[in-house]
């Protein structure tokens, strides 16, 4: 079985018996983001040897455990599968093994009401130590007690204390619950109010509040107690009123949550809008614990949406002394939930670590992105800028050189990185000549790179000019446009748009013969005989903003 544990596959002599398993395992391994493939693999392993029991073969047990471990490492928020795994371990290995799975589950999805309720119920059924069980319930209460739909958990906790006939414990639990805005708040208050009629006064209020209520009472003991109970009841009615108000505030948002659990399917836009508004509300309310809890709830159902991870990290970073919490948010987003195909949150994590003085960690984060997305332009630019900030211009250029020379970058990425290299020389070093040399010496390599040519044209068009130098600048710009039209391999629509920008330049900055050149280009570029694209005449009033907007558009396409 060593071979299986290391590779995830059964050994050759077992393949005939595990043929269906092998097929399903291969499908899930080849596409680890295919949720349906994983579900099929789980179903297949559960059926090995007619269903796993204590008497199943070690191979079948190991295969099943391996599948659950890999599946839940990829999708750790599936509380139902954690329970299924725990039930499986209980059936084949007993209480301790099942408890270990539950512990892993509640560590992975700490705010799952269902999982904590199941875990606590399992503990009640398998343990005979009330203190140990109560300790677990308290852990669960701290993790899920604030949930708007936490009533199954609180009901289970109260039921446990009822079995032990510990009314003082029940009163204490209810005294906590009546302060929490939740779906069934009124039911818990009625139960608390009913029990309070017969419980000692010391159980109903903190000692300092009770002493304050006793002040100025000089009647007999029976009258004092009667009046005290009236005061205490009124005190709790005020709590009920506040809880009712807070519940009503949240009811609209809660009623719009159609999927409070994790799933790989996308949320529809109304759901996303509701989460945004709900988070806005809690942030304005200003209660740190409730806001943090809502973020954690949101990031169960919207775990794949990096916008909420960004927002959570930014909100947490605004709190004093929460650097470790912010780091944990970025790590969870980067290492588990947000797909690597959207590396922005990982780049943001690198910025955070750099800001905390952990430059080596920031560098490691960026390098890890490139291990999975070699040639990713945004990440390489972020890395080069990190090195520039920490080590100077030469350190940044060294990153660009290394990536351009690497066989892991395709020609399009290399063209973009060459343009970024030139930008550093231009914007940071202030050397226009060196930047121009980079473009001129490399343009023949990147005839297919829109990113390169767009930036080359932008570079020449943004150079400062005067009456004495305008003709020289014009010649350089014209040469870039000629190369774009005659030498580059850009798509016709890209060539057409870039030529239009040059035509705007001719009208706004050209000399006395510029109109002639403009009309020739207009005929060649927009003429219907040669061009099968709809005419797009340039506006004489087009601004540099339009140019930059189109630059960004083409850069996105290139990336």
CATH topology of the domain at 16-211: Serine Threonine Protein Phosphatase 5, Tetratricopeptide repeat
The value of Rg in angstroms is: 33 Å
* CA(first)-CA(last) distance: 45 Å
Secondary structure: number of strands: 0
Q: How does the major sheet shape up?
A: none
Query: Roughly what percent helix?
Result: over 70%
Mean pLDDT: 89
Please provide the ordered H/E string of secondary-structure elements: HHHHHHHHHHHHHHHHHHHHHHHHHHHH
How many distinct helices? 28
State the shape.
Answer: elongated
**Which CATH class of the domain at 16-211 applies here?**
Mainly Alpha
Unreliable residue stretches? 1-8, 10-15, 529-556
Kindly report the name of the CATH homologous superfamily of the domain at 16-211: Tetratricopeptide repeat domain
SS class? mainly alpha
CATH architecture designation of the domain at 16-211? Alpha Horseshoe
Strand content: under 5%
InterPro entries: HAT (IPR003107), HAT_PRP39_C (IPR059164), TPR-like_helical_dom_sf (IPR011990)
Protein name: TPR-like protein
Family: Belongs to the PRP39 family.
Keywords: mRNA processing, mRNA splicing, Nucleus, Repeat
Topology of this protein?
Blueprint: H1 2-7, H2 19-30, H3 35-46, H4 58-74, H5 79-92, H6 95-108, H7 113-126, H8 130-144, H9 151-163, H10 167-177, H11 185-196, H12 207-214, H13 221-255, H14 269-285, H15 288-301, H16 306-317, H17 323-337, H18 344-355, H19 359-372, H20 377-391, H21 393-405, H22 411-428, H23 432-442, H24 450-461, H25 470-486, H26 492-509, H27 514-526, H28 544-558
Helix pairs in contact: 2-3, 3-4, 4-5, 5-6, 5-7, 6-7, 7-8, 7-9, 9-10, 10-11, 11-13, 14-15, 15-16, 16-17, 17-18, 18-19, 19-20, 20-21, 21-22, 22-23, 22-24, 24-25, 24-28, 25-26, 26-27
């Amino acid at each position: 079985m060593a071979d299986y544990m290391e590779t995830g596959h059964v050994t050759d002599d077992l393949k005939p018996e595990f043929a269906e398993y092998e097929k399903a395992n291969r499908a899930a391994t080849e596409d680890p983001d295919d949720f349906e493939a994983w579900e099929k693999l789980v179903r297949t392993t559960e059926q090995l040897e007619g269903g796993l029991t204590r008497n199943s073969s070690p191979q079948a047990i190991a295969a099943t455990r391996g599948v659950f471990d890999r599946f839940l490492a990829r999708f750790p928020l599936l509380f139902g599968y954690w329970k299924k795994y725990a039930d499986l371990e209980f059936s084949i290995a007993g209480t301790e093994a099942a408890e270990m799975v539950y512990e892993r589950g509640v560590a992975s999805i700490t705010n799952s009401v269902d999982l904590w309720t199941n875990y606590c119920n399992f503990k009640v059924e398998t343990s005979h130590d009330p203190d140990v069980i109560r300790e677990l319930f308290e852990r669960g209460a701290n993790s899920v007690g604030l949930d708007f739909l936490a009533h199954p958990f609180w009901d289970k906790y109260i039921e446990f204390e009822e079995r032990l006939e510990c009314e003082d414990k029940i009163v204490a639990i209810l005294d906590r619950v009546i302060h929490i805005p939740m779906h069934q708040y009124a039911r818990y208050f009625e139960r608390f109010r009913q029990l309070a009629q017969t419980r000692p006064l010391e159980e109903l209020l903190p000692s300092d509040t009770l002493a304050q209520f006793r002040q100025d009472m000089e009647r007999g003991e029976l009258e004092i107690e009667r009046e005290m109970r009236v005061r205490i009841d009124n005190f709790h009615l005020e709590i009920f009123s506040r809880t009712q108000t807070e519940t009503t505030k949240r009811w609209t948002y809660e009623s719009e949550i159609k999927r409070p659990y994790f799933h790989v399917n996308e949320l529809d836009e109304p759901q996303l809008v509701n989460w945004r508004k709900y988070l806005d509300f809690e942030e304005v309310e200003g209660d740190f614990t409730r806001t943090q809890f809502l973020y954690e709830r949101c990031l169960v159902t919207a775990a794949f949406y990096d916008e909420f991870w960004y927002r959570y990290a930014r909100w947490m970073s605004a709190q004093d002394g929460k650097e470790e919490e912010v780091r944990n948010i970025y790590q969870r987003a980067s290492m588990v939930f947000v797909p690597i195909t959207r590396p922005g949150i990982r780049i943001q994590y690198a910025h955070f670590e750099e800001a905390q003085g952990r430059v080596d960690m920031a560098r490691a984060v960026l390098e890890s992105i490139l291990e999975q997305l070699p040639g990713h332009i945004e990440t390489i630019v972020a890395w080069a800028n990190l090195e520039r900030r920490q080590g100077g211009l030469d350190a940044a250029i060294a990153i660009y050189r290394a990536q351009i020379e690497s066989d892991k970058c395709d020609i399009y990425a290399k063209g973009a990185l060459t343009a970024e290299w030139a930008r550093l020389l231009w914007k940071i070093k202030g050397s226009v000549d060196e930047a121009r040399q980079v473009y001129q010496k490399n343009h023949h390599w990147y005839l297919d790179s829109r990113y390169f040519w767009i930036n080359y044209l932008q570079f020449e068009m943004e150079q400062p000019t005067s009456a004495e130098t305008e003709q020289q600048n014009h010649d350089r710009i014209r040469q870039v446009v000629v190369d774009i039209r005659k030498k580059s391999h850009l798509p016709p629509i890209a060539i057409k748009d870039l030529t239009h920008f040059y035509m705007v330049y001719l009208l706004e900055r050209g000399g006395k013969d510029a109109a002639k050149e403009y009309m020739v280009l207009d005929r060649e570029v927009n003429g219907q005989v040669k061009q099968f694209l709809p005419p797009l005449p340039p506006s004489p009033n087009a601004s540099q903003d339009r140019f930059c907007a189109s630059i960004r558009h083409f850069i996105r396409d290139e990336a």
